[in-house]
Amino acid sequence: MVKYKANVSKLINDIGWKNFSTIFGELFYEAQKGEMKSWDVSLKEFWKVLLLTNLNDNVDIYLEYTFDFASSRCDVIITGKINGVDKIMIIELKQHSRVIDITNKNDLLIYKSSKSSGTLSNQIKRYINFFQAFIEINNIKNTNIIGVGFLHDMWDIKLEEKKVIEDNNDWIVDNLKFKLFIKNQYIEFANYITEEFKNAENSNFIDDFEKSLSIRGIKTIDVIKNKISDKELILTDQQKLFSDDIKYNINSKNAEKKLFIIEGNAGTGKTILIYSLYLYLRNSSKFNNSTHIMARNSTFIRNINSFLNDGYKFKQSSSVVKRKTDNNQVILFDEGQRLTMEQIIKAIDNSKAIIICIDEKQKINYTDEVRKKLIIDYFKAKYPKGIHKSYLLENSIRFLNNRNYIKLVYSFFNNDFIHCEENANIYLYNNQSQLHQKIIELNNNSENLMIKSFKLDDDAKKYSYNWINSSYKMNEIASIYYVHGLEVDYVVIYIPKYIEVKDKNYVEFVDSIKTNRFLTLLTRALKGAFIYCEDEKLYNILYKKLNY
């Protein structure tokens, strides 16, 4: 979200002559005292650099750019188009005069606050990842993202002794190239910016980024596809907080068993978080050969593995039963509500730690027996000194900019009545011809839409593992068991006649599993849903919800 945007002439004038309450407006009154002090120091240091540049007014400069899924803000972003290539420079401004340490990968460990520390490159790389995910999702070719650190008060002998900064202010961290400028390097930094944006034309990159997010939220496969390092993944602030806590506890010297349970509704990023933890452990020298990520549903595994690199794929959860005890073993389970208690007990008994993602609202099988309470009760009884922690993800990143849709979906299952413009892309039919005609129209007017159909009842009919990537066919109506881990633009749900509904003004089937199935199917969609309902009673309930 753009908080401030200007060309270089306007920015120089604004910082030189205006106060920050005028520049940032509402953001100024939301900011902490520390942030205000930082602006007063760091932005004025950056202003000194801009005075020495020779940028044309086609170049856009953004201050305190905010991502919808992260509360942290990027200090400075500069954009311009050079020879048809969108160039994006991400700049992190720091007041630190000393580093805590220099890591073996040449990163700078610095204080983030009085109580916490972090590495500089990770802060920059996180913002790069946010944009990189957008580039990969939309298959954008002509982009160049640059990460820069400006430590305007830094002069630490350690930097010289360890040769942190190479020629031309190159800063190499873990084989990634950044730029690093320190105290009194105003001219060097200004010359670098000028050269990078020489003869630049205007870039629409940030506008396109924001428009893309308004179309749909974050799709799991787009985030984890072909990733082999946790540093490549984008995480929300909440995901990162939970991830850091789990890493800390796993790496602690405490030898007791450890159990971590991650809960959250559909679309809150459970798979992204657990896969990020898997990549972290898989790439660590201590746990790399003893870390395994698993799920029970074979269709889910085949689908997700088709997007993952060899050596970083999901395994069948049934294999955990045959695994021997390993003091360094870490087992990560996705879709934990689909597991058996035997599998969970084996994993706990034979491992140092297990991490489980679970959503009991997504129990869609009559044989699904796992409950969070059962897991915790077993763990506490068998390992009373063990460490157990639970985490609840709350941000629906799948529905990041389709919040009306998910609000309306959840209102189907309670007494709430939500008024949404145009029914938030939820279409209700009791006539199949009209349903199919609407889907055909939508498909004809939009490119590359992923639309898939399901029914609530069990079905033995099977499709190939790459069925999810095929075009929409109205006669392909899949079994409910294809649904876990699935994300589509539109979901089509067929509900049979005479389905038993309780006598309420919201949706609750007599069969609670079918209630879970209906909710699970609705939460697969990034954009909207088509509901074909033959049952008159249910149709009337949904109609009233949609036309409130």
From TrEMBL:
Organism of this sequence: Spiroplasma corruscae
Name of protein: Schlafen group 3-like DNA/RNA helicase domain-containing protein
Domain Schlafen group 3-like DNA/RNA helicase: 257-448, 459-505
InterPro entries: P-loop_NTPase, SLFN_3-like_DNA/RNA_helicase
Gene3D superfamilies: P-loop containing nucleotide triphosphate hydrolases
Source domain of life: Bacteria
